[in-house]
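Hi U.,

Before I forget, here's the chain from the pilot set. I'm dumping it here mostly so it's searchable later in email.
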Amino acid sequence: MVTVVDPDGRPRDVGYWHADPSKRALVERYAAVRMDAMPVTAPLMRALLTGEPVMEPTESVLGLLAAGEARDVLAALSPGSASCIPLRGRNRTLGVMTLYFRSGWTPREEDLATAQDVADRAGLALDNARLYGQQQALAEGLQRSLLTEPPEPDHAEIAVRYHPAAEAARVGGDWYDAFLQPGGATVLVIGDVVGHDTEAAAAMGQLRGLLRGIATYSDAGPGEVLRGLDASMALLQTRVLATAAVARLEQTDDERRRGVTRMRWANAGHLPPLVINPDGSVAELATWRGDLLLGVDPEARREESMVTLDRGATVLLFTDGLVERRDADLDAGLARLREALRELAHRPLQEMLDEVLERLVDGHPEDDVALVAVRLHRQDAPRPAVAGPNRVPDVVPEDPASPPRR
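Structure:
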């Protein structure tokens, strides 16, 4: 029988076997009930506490168990003795392997040596898994702490998602962002630092902070923001490569009266945004043409593109983990995404993003996935309830089409 210690410190049986098939059901039942009946003086508990092997005859174990099902099942199994061998990690005992021997047979020294070797290897594997999980949780926690909730400008609903890779070692540098500039424009950002480890996650935090500072202080457009970020990376010797796309939603008084919004966007080696029009059609704003990554040439020019959006349109920015698979090329993934968006175009925004993730990565992405989307609601009507409350910084100018702030 194999016992491991849960994160909360409680021992739990996770595996069992018997050489005699007719007795395996009894072993299964014993595993289900023995922990609740076992005192701290039992051999298993002593092996966990001391980290040393403990061997006892069955009579001694039966004498320690209170009357009940656990004691009855062990008596029915009728082993002659038990050896509790700790599963030791680097600095703690992670579990116990208990071997039960038939009556009249005493294990040889080489039997116990082999069992100890198996237990040591199992303990090291468990410890590696524990440390692996801690590293993933640290990197994931760092990422999530930096990926803050977006603002909610009136008549614009913003939704974000971040899903780490299913493989723990592939935690990386994907990020999303959404914020307002001093003039009131809404900015969406999506980016991906090259690499899959805690260093990539840390670099992501640096670049995200730099881009935010440049954009919110300068009130500049997407191309200039990316150029400023490239220059800052070179000056600060941030030796990483990254892709990013920046989109800015802006509007003149005339555009507001006509019910349209301009979106200017610029790209640094990232996949272009997609627009879901009010009629459900999906527009790809550009073909991916391999724009220069951030961190390559601080003098690189960043061209801007512009598109006019009707009210009811939705813009989606995403990282490549959403569409890339080991068994399919990028074009196939983009086609699957466009098809999903056409089918989900009229769903509420939050629901649409959840369903897109479910359809494309099925909850187990091979790479990190970050999404940021904005849906433009009508400005000649109150903010829809589904969009949630209107939340913007006090220093941002009021939207002339919005009710006065209180």
